[in-house]
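ESCALATION

Customer reports they have been waiting on this structure for their group meeting. Please prioritize. Original submission:
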Amino acid sequence: MSFKNLQVLKPTRFQVVFLLLLMGVQAVSALPAQADANAGKASAKAQPLSVDQAPLRAGEPQLILTKTIEDNLSEVQVGDIIRYRIRWECSSLTTSCGQMEITDVLQNGLEYLGPPNSSVPAGFNLNYNSGTRTVTITKADNNLIDGTQYDAVIVVRVALDYRPLPSTINNTVNGRIDPPGPVTWQNATPASAPPITIGDVSPSWSLSKVRVAPVVEPTVDTEVTYRLRLCPVTPPSGGIAALTNVVFTDTLPAASVFVSASDGGTESGGVVTWPAIAGPLYPPDCVSRLITIIYPTPDFSIGDTLTNSASVTASYVDSTGNNCPNCFAPTPSEITHDIIDILDVPTYSKTDSGDPVGITGTARFILNLNTNATNYPANNVTLIDNLPPELEVTSVTTGTWSSSFDYVRAYVEYSTDNGDTWSAFSPSPVLYNTNDTYTAPANNITNVRWRFEYDADLDSTFTPGLPYVWQFASRPEIRVTPRDTDSATDNTPPVTLPAAAANTTYTNCLYVTRTNASGSVTDPCTNEDMTVRGDYVSLRVGKSETPGDPWDEFEDPNINTFTSDASILPGDTLRYVLSLEMTERSSADLIDPTILDTLPADLIFVRQGSVLLNNAPLPSGAAVTFTQSGPNPGAGQTLLWQFSGLTVAQRPLNSNILTVEFFARIPRG
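Update from on-call: job pushed to the front of the queue and completed.
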């Protein structure tokens, strides 16, 4: 044994005697008491030790445990999350701690939330025995090294059905180690987390009532639908008790007419009652019921104010574990509104996706229609697009609408004689999720229309028109290209459809026909202009930003290896891609473009990256010159890419994308 090693150890009295003997000191007398003690230890070590008996000897490994609660949580309710943090450390002067086992027995009423909620460091195993409610942590290689320490997080939730509730939640972690050599398992001193107070449960639920159709205030003699909804209060006033035997009721305004109720609701004496929901109903779930009524004339008139009230009762189990039947009855929910004039005009509009279009390019008109601002059913609704004769239809996309309106269908049709006759695109009708794109079957289409029907009662009898609160989810589109030669309609006699002229603007009319109480109605045009150009290039410019790992000025100063991550922090790297996309509205080649980017004052440029056309290197003969100017970093810093010998050919129905890339970093601090 060297003196260096002896200095590391904390010597016992026996070791002091031994040292003195080594140094030739002869005057040391025997120490009877210590000698007797050492003799006893030697005798004891010769005997096998059980886990419970194993004493801790000086210098032997120790497993040190601590347990805390994240965020210093001291009070919870049922349903709350508790995050326990366990820390363990191997403390030894002689060897490793070897095999390790940490156990945490969860109190009844705590639900274990496994990975990814609970977690242990790499190299450790985490297991849960639901029968014994025991969480166990072990080291994969069975060798806990001296001086190492680790943390684990054990996540639990206080069960919503935990009854009766204790006053506190306690949690203690135990552990043991089996070091190398003849020493058997050694128990660590258990570590307890601070106790957590648990509060009483309460039925923290609320009832709401809203009008879902129409969105605007209702009118007379038409259906009005309300929704009753029972949901947990957020944030809750206490631990949210689950509900059972939930009963909804709705008291109708006097003289109103009951039409229907969802989920088996029935009306008697002006009160609608739904069958009880057995439950239990747990948060965060909600439960809803619908009711439809009519306010008929002459009992109701325009300008009347109405109040409609809904109630609910339910049972729950209180903190002591006793069931409290029908104890929950939140404040009734009332909705008050006026009766207003009939509103039956759908909302419709038309926009273009980019303007202008090149003389041989392709443009898109996007149509919109909804009945959100109506309170009376829109009958015989047809959406019609009268196209400028100079624009030739190339395709039509049907659009989609919500699955809640799966009982609505549309016939998408076209005319080649200015609306005298109509033919359906095939297949027709289209449903809520059809979303077809039809190639134009003729080059002389003059009009396109959507003719709607719906079957609200699901009896296979369709009514021409639309229900209110209907709208497109994805809007239909009409693709057009400037007409290159004169064409003729199928009218008798034919009508000339003239070719488009460059630098001319054409107007597109979209309107609705329908039937109201007075008869057939044609609503006015909503117009959208489209300008036709001659040789024209349409570009869609984009810039993407990808954050990366911290900048390493020693190993990778030029960011030659870029690894993306999810956040932008001081000292991080960044990858930018600038793109020029040649859209279908183009009618000419793109020749030798220039790309300029002005950087923020605090962004440090590192290097430029790849330059690609359609994800491939530039074609032979094409070149790019890159110039950086201005301070780096600093206001006014610019990056310039100038192309030469590059011609990007026009492809009207496809995209050509030119991209340039550069790398930068965020200053530290």
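Sent to customer with the following note: DSSP finds three helices and 53 strands in the chain.
Escalation resolved.
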